[in-house]
Amino acid sequence: MSETTTYTVTGMTCGHCAASVTEEISEIAGVEGVDVVVETGAVTVTSATPLDESAVRAAVEEAGYALV
Fold first, then answer.
1. Main-chain dihedrals φ then ψ at residue 66, nearest 5 degrees
2. Roughly how many angstroms between the first and final C-alpha of the chain, as a whole number?
3. For 2-16, b where at least 16 C-beta lie within 10 A, e where not — what string?
4. Could you tell me what percent of the chain has a pLDDT over 90?
5. DSSP label at 51?
6. 22 near 42, Cβ under 8 Å?
7. Which residue numbers delimit the HMA domain (predicted)?
8. What is the pTM of this model?
9. Which of 23, 24, 21 is nearest to 11 (CA)?
10. Residue 40 exposed, middle or buried by CB count within 10 Å (0-12, 13-18, 19+)
11. What does the alpha-carbon distance between residue 25 and residue 63 come to, in Å, rounded to a whole number?
12. Chain centroid, CA 34 distance in Å
């Protein structure tokens, strides 16, 4: 069964921002899907197993944004 977790990311303003965040989070082992809503900063991640929040935080920061 998949796990779904929603995070809030600050600093995103456009589709390119969303693509950068999606790309970085998608590289985390076990991630099956990433849905980003730029307007609210909501990032919903579907994964095979629960993710370590520090891994998600590192991916978001690598993309140039911040996890709230």
1. -125, 140
2. 27
3. eeeeebebeebeeee
4. 99
5. P
6. no
7. 3-68
8. 0.94
9. 21
10. exposed
11. 9
12. 6
Residue 1's pLDDT is what? 84
φ, ψ for residue 37 (rounded to 5)?
Answer: -115, 100
Structure tokens given for 57: 């935080």
Q: For the chain, where are the E strands, in sequence order?
A: 3-10, 31-37, 42-47, 66-67
Burial (Cβ within 10 Å: 0-12, 13-18, ≥19) of residue 54: exposed
Q: What is the pLDDT of residues 8-41, one digit of tens each?
A: 999 999 999 999 999 999 999 999 999 999 999 9
One-letter amino acid identity for 48?
Answer: A
- In whole angstroms, give the CA distance from residue 7 to residue 1: 20
